[in-house]
Amino acid sequence: MKEWTKEERYRVLESPEEIRALHERIEGSDYRQIFHIQPVTGLLNDPNGFVWYGGSWHLFYQWCPWGAVHGLKYWYHTSSPDLIHWENLGICISPDSEYDNKGAYSGSALPGKDSVCLFYTGNHRDPDWKRISYTCMVKLYEDGRRYKLPWPLFGPSPDYTEHQRDPKIIYVPEKKEYFIVIGAQTLDKKGCVIIYRSPALLDGWEFAGQLKVPGFEDFGGMWECPSIEKISGQDVLLFCPQHIRLPGRGENTNHSGYILGEMNWDTLTFTPSGSFHVLDFGFDSYAAECAANIEDRDYAVLTAWMGLPDSSYPTDEEDWQGCLTMPRELTVRGRRLIQKPLADLTALRMEELDPGPGVLPRTCELEILSRGGDLDLKLFSHQDGSGGMSIHYDDSRRMVTVDRSGVDRRFNESMGETREHSLENRLSHLRIFIDRSSVEIFVNNGDAVFSSRIFPTAGENGFVLSDNASMRIWRLDRAVQDDFVV
Ligand code: FRU
Q1: pLDDT higher than threshold 80 for residue 297
Q2: Alpha helices in 51-139 (DSSP H)
Q3: Is the pTM for the entire model greater than 0.70?
Q4: What is the CATH number assigned to the segment(s) 351-476?
Q5: 417 ligand 1 Cβ < 6 A
């Protein structure tokens, strides 16, 4: 596997022509997806700036053009009329100023009257490679014009380590003030959220304090991508604690999750009403982001990076990596977030197939109804039933276990090859979306979701389902264009 030098990783993209041939090569990959957002070349990680603005959805992603490597990051822009069909619009934020010289890192969006404001972390490195994080802003106008504020809104706080990033902009109407929450690390290396406030968007920003989250003072070493949302009338703190192991999550130490509770913007306290929950129980999910400004709905819309930090994937040798999850509908039920596939996704269904032959199309939706008891499902098995990814439900413990150690192309084994989650209710229903290199499993109408990358070989096109369940299969249509737009 290629060893990247720092110069190669942080090379500035001068012209689209430098990566056209790379795009043409990867376009032919067997693992290019047809209904998931994926990088035009190189590496995709976090979703950024997810927003409804000017009559369409806008979703950006962290993008390093050169290959499957974390290097110089751009914001790549995609848009959609309906959250299902997406088109590539090219680079929106380039790391071309002093303040973001080594990357336009993650952030969020706030729509205004004539433009949408994009807040992001300028990842500056000084000549000794010391990191200095600035909070920066770009205005994006409806006609596509962009204006980058020539100075940052604020620099890093001296009272935390160099790890301060991922601004989430929040307007709090009761206080008539804007807040920016930022993922940070205390000087004694504990993950936390710090908060800035201002009466105006472009200036007047001041440090307001560290978010108090009673009971979570020592929970991981850095919190990335924090956000505070109101979902179904409930306050939700979403964040990604790093350097911490959690039950059922193998050796993985990077998690995307949430706490339900109550946010008090006067005392800057988020009082939890329960414990930390993992958002997605599969292998590959991180840096989830909710779409901004959809307060008129009784649900939120969420997407995430279907990947993990510090990981490698079989497409690395093809010089690309990563995709986003399908956007999902989020509500709060009881003490949990419920995540459902968007209702309009049924529009992607093409012909319904007879499950009898046990052949899995490369892009399909499965719907499985259990008649009770334990359930065994194997996906991507060989035609003789061997190998594949196994999904086992143990009714006595209400435990779902997903095991991908049986696939031909194993990867990220060091993060653990099984994931477990115990359900609140008995298993009754599964809805599974399979694209050319991913699988998203929705359990019991949103009780739990498992998202994972999977890279089937030519012989891995079978499935096996235990007798106590029935299945329907639909072939799914393309919804995401793979055009070369830079
Ligand atoms: C999370 C993250 C963010 C950062 C971005 C850089 O995956 O590390 O904290 O802004 O990725 O690409």
Answers
A1: no
A2: none
A3: yes
A4: 2.60.120.560
A5: no
